[in-house]
Specification:
25 helices, 6-stranded mixed beta sheet, alpha+beta, 17 strands, 4-stranded antiparallel beta sheet, about 625 residues, binds 2'-deoxycytidine-5'-triphosphate, about 45% helix
Length: about 625
C-alpha cells in the first residue's frame, strides 16, 4: 500500500536516472562490433527464438518490441542481432549486467545521496549540490553550459525548433526565475555533467528526469529516451498529471488503479483532483486516500534512501508451455539450482558489503488440471532466512509444500508450475561489533581457524547470531508474516508474540553459542581467548574437549564459585559429557579484558556484562533472561 508522506518545506532537487536499453548496451560494450546495429537480448529459453528482454533503439525503429519472441523480431527486422543472456545453472546469469549497473552507480553517487532502485535505475538527491551551485556559481554566471544540459527538455516550456538550444540556455539562466526553478536549472546542469562522465567512463547512455520529488522525476525520465533528460518545473505538474493515465503511475498499475477507473470513473491522475480528501479517504482508507489526494497534486515526500546496493536478491526461472514442472522432484531440482545461486549472492553480499539477509520468500505461478477454481493463485510464502545452500533448499521446499497445499485445497488433482522465484530480503548491515569479529576471524592470525571451518558455518553462525540479536523485532515480524495470507493482527495475540520473541531470543543464543563452540572445536584458537588476560586460567582446547556435536542441549553452563565465575556443565550435561571424556573449563573474571566485550553482539554484551558484574550478588540468574537459561548455575548438591 502506498504511504502518504508530506513534502519537506524546502524545495528538493531529485533526479531519476535510467540506463537506455540496458542489457543491449552492456552486450555492445562487450562486443563493439554490435554497436550501431539493430540488436536485442533474448532469454535463455530458446522456444520460438527466445523471449526478448531488452531491445536496442536501432531495432525499435523497425518495430521490434519487448513483447516479441526472437522469431517474430526477425520477421520485422531481418538483420537483427539476437544475443542470448549469459547462462549459468541452466538459467540466465545476470552478474555481468549487475556489475555494469554498479559502475554507473559509483559515478552518479559522487554528487549526492544515491538510491539504487533496480539493476539500471538510480535516484539522486542533488539538493545540496544544486544549492551550492546556486550560491557559488549560478547558471547565469557560467561562461559555457555543457551541451548535454542544452539538449534538456523542460516540460511546459516550448523550446522546439531551430533555436532550441538557445532557448533552453535562456531557461536555465533566467535571473528572474523563482528559487525553485533556479534549483532545478542547477540540477539539470549537474545531471548533464554526470551523464557525460558515465558515457566517457562506461560507454553507456542514460536518460534522466529532474524534478522536486522522486515521483515526478521517475515520470519524466522515460519521456525523451534515449540519452536525453527532462526537467519538471512546478508550473508544469498540473498539465503533466492531467494527461497521465492512472495505470502509468507507479503503484496504480494493479488493483488500486483498476478500482479508481471502475469505481470512481477516473482515467488520468489529474481526474482525481475533483475528489475531496475526505471522499478519497472514505473509499480507500486514510493513508491511501491521503496519498491519492497528494499525488494528484504532484506531492510526494518520499526520501531518496542512501542505498547503493540492492534491497533484495532474487532469482527465478519460468517454465512456459510444455516445460511446466509437474512433479515435486522436478520442482526440487530447480529449487536446488535457484538456492545455489541465491546462496552465492547472499554470501558475496556478506563478504563484500557486510550485509545479512533476513527473509526468504518463494513466489510461484501454477495451474491446476481441470481447474475448478481458476481464480486461486499460488500463494507467496516467507520465512526467516538461514544461510547455506542446503538450509535454503530445505526451507524453500517447505515453503513450496505449504504453498501447494493452500493452492490445491482439498482437491487431489494434477498441477503444473510455470514459474519459480526465490528472494532474500530485509537486508541489513552486520552490526559493528560482529564486523570486527569477522575481521578478526578473517585476519592473518586466525586464517587457520577459518580454513578449518569446513563449511564456513562458523562465520555464518556468528553473523546470524548477531543479526538475530539486533533484529529480533524485524524477524518477529517475518515470523508473523510467514504466511502472506495471514495478517499480523490476526496472529498476534500477546501470548503468541511473547512466545515468538522468546523463541527468537533462544535462537540468537543458540547460534552465538554454537559459533563460540565451533571456534573452540576448530582447534587452533578460541574466541574465549578474547576474554583472556595475561594470567588467564583458560584451558587449552584439549582441556575444553573436542567435539563435533554442536547440540545446544549439551552446552556448558556458568556458575559462580567464590570470586570467579566458572563455566561448567549443568548437572545432567556434566554427567553425560564427562562420560564422553569432556572436562569442564573456566576462567577468572579479573582476567577478562573488558574491551573484548565490545566485540560481541550488543545483546550478548549485555548478558555477559551481567554475568561478570554481579559477583557480589548471590543469584545471577535473572528471571526471563534466556541466555542465563543456557548457562544456568550448577546447583550445589
Ligand atoms: N529486463 C528483463 N525482463 C523484463 C524487463 C527488463 O530482463 N521483462 C531487463 C533487461 C533490460 C533491463 O532489465 O535491459 C532494464 O529494463 P528497462 O525496463 O529499464 O528497459 P531497457 O533498459 O532495456 O530499455 P529502456 O531504454 O526503455 O529503459
Amino acid at each position: 500500500m502506498p504511504i502518504a508522506r508530506p513534502e519537506p518545506q524546502n524545495a528538493r532537487v531529485i533526479a531519476h536516472v535510467d540506463m537506455d536499453c540496458f542489457y543491449v548496451q552492456v552486450e555492445q560494450r562487450k562486443n563493439p562490433e554490435l554497436k550501431g546495429l539493430p540488436a536485442a537480448v533474448v532469454q535463455y529459453n530458446s522456444w520460438k527464438g527466445g523471449a526478448l528482454i531488452a531491445v536496442g533503439y536501432e531495432a525499435r525503429r523497425f518495430g521490434v518490441k519487448r513483447s516479441m519472441r526472437g522469431d517474430e523480431a526477425k520477421m520485422v527486422c531481418p538483420n537483427i542481432q539476437l544475443i542470448q543472456v549469459p547462462v549459468a545453472r541452466g538459467k540466465a546469469d545476470l552478474n555481468m549486467y549487475r556489475d555494469a549497473g554498479s559502475e554507473v552507480v559509483s559515478i552518479l553517487s559522487t554528487k549526492g545521496r544515491c538510491e539504487r532502485a533496480s539493476i539500471d535505475e538510480v535516484y539522486l538527491d542533488l539538493t545540496d549540490a544544486a544549492e551550492t551551485m546556486l550560491s557559488e556559481t549560478p547558471p547565469e554566471m557560467l561562461d559555457t553550459i555543457n551541451e548535454e544540459a542544452l539538449r534538456s527538455h523542460v516540460l511546459g516550456f516550448n523550446v522546439d525548433g531551430d533555436e532550441r538550444e538557445k532557448n533552453v540556455k535562456e531557461w536555465l539562466c533566467r535571473s528572474e526565475a523563482d528559487r525553485q526553478d533556479k534549483l532545478l536549472a542547477c540540477g539539470a546542469i549537474i545531471v548533464a555533467q554526470l551523464l557525460i562522465e558515465v558515457l566517457n567512463e562506461t560507454t553507456f547512455t542514460c536518460s534522466a528526469g529532474i524534478a522536486h520529488n522522486k515521483m515526478l522525476a521517475k515520470l519524466a525520465s522515460p519521456m525523451h529516451k534515449p540519452a536525453q533528460q527532462t526537467v519538471v518545473p512546478s508550473s508544469s505538474v498540473k498539465d503533466l498529471l492531467a494527461s497521465l493515465p492512472v495505470k502509468k503511475m507507479k503503484q496504480l498499475g494493479g488493483k488500486l488503479g483498476s478500482s479508481l477507473q471502475i469505481d470512481l470513473g477516473v482515467k488520468t491522475v489529474g481526474d482525481l483532483l475533483q475528489f475531496s480528501q475526505e471522499k478519497l479517504q472514505e473509499h480507500y482508507g486514510i493513508n491511501t486516500g491521503t496519498w491519492l489526494w497528494n499525488i494528484s497534486r504532484g506531492i510526494s515526500g518520499d526520501a531518496v534512501e542512501d542505498r547503493l546496493l540492492p534491497k533484495s536478491h532474487g532469482c527465478g526461472k519460468t517454465f512456459p508451455g510444455p516445460q511446466a514442472l509437474k512433479t515435486i522432484a522436478s520442482v526440487e531440482n530447480w529449487v536446488n539450482q535457484l538456492c545455489e545461486e541465491l546462496n552465492e549472492r547472499i554470501h558475496s553480499d556478506l563478504d563484500q558489503n557486510k550485509r545479512v539477509a533476513h527473509t526468504l520468500t518463494l513466489h510461484a505461478r501454477a495451474f491446476k488440471e481441470n481447474d475448478m477454481e481458476p481464480q486461486r493463485k499460488f500463494p507467496s510464502k516467507s520465512c526467516p532466512l538461514r544461510y547455506g545452500t542446503s538450509k535454503l533448499k530445505e526451507d524453500t521446499m517447505r515453503l513450496f509444500d505449504s504453498g501447494l497445499r493452500d493452492f490445491l485445497g482439498s482437491q487431489h488433482i494434477g498441477w503444473g508450475v510455470t514459474s519459480l522465484s526465490i528472494t532474500a530480503s530485509k537486508i541489513t548491515d552486520v552490526p559493528q561489533g560482529t564486523r570486527s569479529i569477522l575481521k578478526f576471524l578473517q585476519g592473518k592470525d586466525c586464517s587457520s581457524m577459518i580454513s578449518d571451518d569446513p563449511n564456513g558455518s562458523l562465520k555464518q553462525d556468528l553473523v546470524s547470531s548477531s543479526a538475530v540479536c539486533t533484529e529480533v523485532d524485524l524477524q518477529r515480524k517475518d515470523f508473523e508474516m510467514m504466511n502472506h495470507d495471514v495478517r499480523p493482527s490476526d496472529l498476534a495475540s500477546e501470548a503468541t508474540r511473547s512466545d515468538i520473541n522468546s523463541k527468537l531470543l533462544d535462537e540468537t543464543q543458540k547460534r552465538t553459542i554454537t559459533a563460540i563452540r565451533k571456534i573452540k572445536d576448530v582447534g587452533k584458537s578460541s574466541i574465549l581467548k578474547f576474554f583472556q588476560g595475561s594470567n588467564s586460567s583458560f584451558p587449552t582446547t584439549s582441556q575444553a574437549g573436542e567435539t563435533s556435536n554442536h547440540d545446544t542441549a549439551s552446552l556448558p553452563s556458568f556458575s559462580e564459585k567464590g570470586s570467579s565465575t566458572e563455566v561448567s556443565m549443568n548437572k545432567d550435561d556434566r554427567h553425560s559429557q564427562t562420560q564422553n571424556g569432556y572436562d569442564s573449563w573456566g576462567f577468572n573474571v579479573e582476567d577478562i579484558d573488558p574491551s573484548v566485550l565490545d566485540e560481541l553482539p550488543i545483546e550478548i554484551q549485555r548478558e555477559v556484562r551481567e554475568w561478570i558484574r554481579p559477583l557480589k550478588r548471590t543469584n545471577t540468574s535473572r528471571k526471563g533472561s534466556s541466555i542465563v537459561h543456557y548457562f544456568s548455575p550448577v546447583k550445589k548438591e
